Amino acid sequence: MAESTRTPGVAPGRLDTATLETNFADLHGALEPHEAQVAADRCYFCHDAPCVTACPTTIDIPLFIRQIATGTPKAAAKTIFDQNILGGMCARVCPTETLCEEACVREAAEGKPVDIGRLQRFATDTLMNEGKQPYSRAAATGKKVAVVGAGPAGLSCAHRLAMYGHDVVIFDAKDKPGGLNEYGIAAYKSVNNFANNEVAWLLSIGGIEIKQGQAIGSDIALADLQNEYDAVFLGVGLDGTNKLAVPGAELNHVTDAVQFIADVRQSEDYTDVAVGRHVVVIGGGMTAIDAAVQARLLGAENVTIAYRRDQENMNASRWEQELAAAKGCNILPHLQPVSIEGKGEVTSITLEYTDATTDGLKGTGETVTLNADQVLMAVGQTLEGQPAGLSLSGSKIQVDSAGRTSVDGIWAGGDCASGGDDLTVTAVAEGRDAAEDIHKQLISN
Prior knowledge:
Layout lengths: L16 H7 L9 H8 L9 H5 L6 H9 L3 H11 L3 H7 L6 H4 L1 H6 L5 H13 L15 E5 L3 H12 L3 E5 L8 H4 L10 H10 L4 E4 L10 H7 L2 E4 L5 E2 L12 E3 H10 L11 E5 L3 H12 L4 E5 L11 H9 L2 E4 L2 E9 L1 E13 L2 E12 L2 E4 L3 E2 L9 E2 L2 E2 L12 E3 L11 H21 L1
């Protein structure tokens, strides 16, 4: 570690550039052609393959692996993109260990599944590296669709609609398109500006315009979109973040983990990213893991993930938990924050042990205090404002199986909509399926 590691408080430059480049290198790395061949040969090419059922986008996994095995990776990529136009990013960030690979027959028989995720990346990278996509627009229909949000759901919906010949305008609140893929994924999972390059590749089909810096409610009104467009799709994600309702939550360097991840992702020089020496992350999901691991990779000496339930109930997969442990993060279950201490800036956090009872989770009264100069909150995200006139299911927009909302002519999908599991791959599937339903509606009118 660099000498500046000893700097107290939250500071940039804890590690030198060379170390940071090594730390933030591609987590999995791409397969070489011979490696892909060996990995593909392990597939049983099952009939009624359980891996397909486990994939939210229902990619024909045995088919694309067979295409790799027979030396046609670009055909394999087409098989993937037919179902998942963001298959390149999903190959990098999908929790395959709890989806397709967990369902793999090899996993059940041997405890070692076919390397489906990396094979998907091999195929999609092979085709995308040519700079062309295997789709072209149908004849123009004269119909216009507004898509709100340039994240996975919005981009998937827009591409499918453009392919059918409709004109699409995407309105996005951020400075750059990509949504979660651009701002919310750990930097070591998506390197070399892949998210931005993937968006450019997707847009090359034509017929899609993106307007950045356009937030619904403040810059654009849903009613205006309804009047100006033939259909509207909402893929706005969950931009709001829950806060810790404990004393001291207002102190400096008590921030949300989502913003911390975004800051790392958007940094052009990791030596400029400030991180504490003693970092505590509150939460048990993928965001908590991503924030904790990145804090450690930036040079934090001690990183602790505190979760209020037992470790088996963490939303982060076992593989992600093991990754955090391998990177030197401590996971402490059965702990909930009760106060954060400091004068102006956080210096410690007090956590109470919890117990799961028949009446729900209860504090035991026993506490522990940890040194902390940075506290990152990963306690859930919320829908930022309710789009006027739409029914909600809990805190999300209520939709049916086709993505239709309670208002005619408006569809929704991705994290902002009911029924999903807040995964990139699920958002892609919901955007795609909504586009199919929108297309049927538009051509029937």
